[in-house]
Amino acid sequence: MSETTRPTPSSPETHVIDFRAAEQLLAARDPRGAVKLLDSVVAAHPENTAARLLRARAFFAAAQLRPAELEFELVLEREPDNAFAHFALARTHERAGRPEQARKHFRLAAALDPQPEYLAAARFEEQA
Q: What is the spatial distance between Cα 7 and Cα 13, in angstroms, rounded to a whole number?
């Protein structure tokens, strides 16, 4: 692409740029800005699980728990073995005051990927 040629607003190149910019905004603690960029990416590529997962994280960081929950659930419909999505959905349930739903997803995350953070959150030593 030459210096005078720019991607069109709905081009694949623009979506990649928006996705990367959304990652940066989320890292810079601007989740609402990230959501705005990701809305167009998800609209153009609804099957893109990475974009949906990033948008779910941005919703969570913006304390928009219901949209975060819906996005994490959609990711898990497509990737039921995604330990991070289970963990993040559990955190969303926990933050929304639903400890039993949270415990289920914490335990699934730990079973799928027994990293220390997931195992600690799963609290397997406690009775269900």
A: 6
